[in-house]
Write a structure and sequence with these properties.
The chain has 242 residues and is of the alpha+beta class. It is built from six helices and ten strands, in the order E-H-E-H-H-H-H-E-E-E-E-E-E-H-E-E.
Length: 242
């Protein structure tokens, strides 16, 4: 992978969006993270679950603006029936009193950032990519995609917004469903991390989230932040590997 590229087809439907991108290298594996640091990460995740309540002004999940803005965005492209933004799924758990629990240290950190700022956050194993990392509309559909936890190919739909590389889709329906090929695991060392914002008024929060994300990855996973920046319509590409 050399670049992250948000294609013109993305900006045509979401011109006010901004995408935070961070590349981290030499992360500790899950086994290398001390029990004390795992406990600290779990505490940060617990605090984020509690903090997330400030974003929930209605008991109807779709009536909360941090979710409603994504519901509107998802109406602008073809989606699989029932597909929802990743932050909606996390906040729904908080609303139902079923807080997000620990999975693996790297994932726990990005879930904590997602909950605290009510912004979708994801991560991929950068070593598994083939070619550049793109975000755009798949006009023809049919990009290969094996969802996490599944055994059968579930290709993209014509007109679907997805992340992809030369091998196929990486994450379908914008940030709805991640694939096995590039997923972060307990043994991942190098990652590309993404924070998404479709509300132009929340750009300052995106900056804050990205900075805090970087600090946590350094502090708890010993990661080297090799690249960090925000992609916008006026700056639609970011170099990932020099």
């Amino acid at each position: 992978m050399q670049k992250f590229i948000a294609e013109p087809s993305f900006w045509e439907i979401l011109p006010e969006a901004s995408i935070g991108i961070m590349v981290v290298r030499a992360m500790k594996t899950a086994d290398e993270v001390s029990s004390e640091d795992k406990a600290a990460i779990a505490s940060i995740l617990n605090e984020a679950n509690a903090t997330a309540n400030q974003h929930l002004t209605s008991n109807t999940i779709s009536e909360n603006e941090v979710v409603a803005v994504w519901r509107r965005a998802y109406q602008l492209f073809k989606t699989k029936k029932g597909a929802r933004c990743s932050i909606e799924n996390l906040l729904k758990r908080v609303l139902k009193g079923n807080p997000v629990g620990p999975i693996t240290p790297s994932v726990d950190i990005y879930n904590a950032i997602s909950l605290k700022y009510a912004l979708p956050v994801g991560g991929e194993n950068i070593d598994a990519f083939v070619g550049d990392f793109h975000l755009g509309i798949d006009e023809e559909g049919g990009k290969s995609f094996l969802p996490i936890g599944e055994e059968e190919n579930a290709p993209t739909l014509p007109g679907e917004l997805c992340y992809y590389d030369e091998e196929g889709a990486v994450c379908r329906c914008f940030n709805w469903r991640d694939g096995q090929r590039t997923e972060l695991t307990d043994d991942s060392r190098n990652a590309i991390l993404v924070i998404e914002c479709v509300d132009g008024a929340r750009l300052p929060e995106l900056h804050a989230a990205l900075d805090e994300f970087a600090d946590l990855m350094r502090r708890f996973l010993g990661a080297e932040v090799a690249a960090k920046g925000i992609v916008t319509k006026d700056n639609p590409e970011m170099t990932i590997v020099e």
